[in-house]
Amino acid sequence: MDINLPNVYAEVARCSDRYEQALVSNDVATLDELFWVSPHTLRYGVTENLYGYAEICAFRAARPAQGLQRTVLKTVITTYGRDAATVNIEFQRTGSAHTGRQSQTWLRTEQGWRVVAAHVSLLAPQPA
After folding, report:
1. What is the mean pLDDT of the chain?
2. Which of 8, 46, 60, 104 is the most buried (most CB within 10 A)?
3. What whole-number distance in Å separates Cα of residue 128 and Cα of residue 124?
């Protein structure tokens, strides 16, 4: 299996950057577009478990639009062949002492690269 083919890696990196921009600007249409339209899609958030594209869209539509700014601390992208990838991000929300972690599994579909599974969690603040 070919890992991190340069052209595939670049495609996934562009999609991940697009997702990040949509996330911090609350561009719900783009966020919805980048998830696979399937009942098999899932997203485990900090406080919610969402099963299927419809639940993910409903969550995004109801989520408050404030407090979304964050700084990406580290990104690790790994592509597997030409059609699968993982993107893992460590981030810090503006004004928060928590470090967050975001994991996404991306799959090339007929519509393009889409997130098929995602997980977001927070680490407890580290003592000074």
Report:
1. 95
2. 104
3. 12
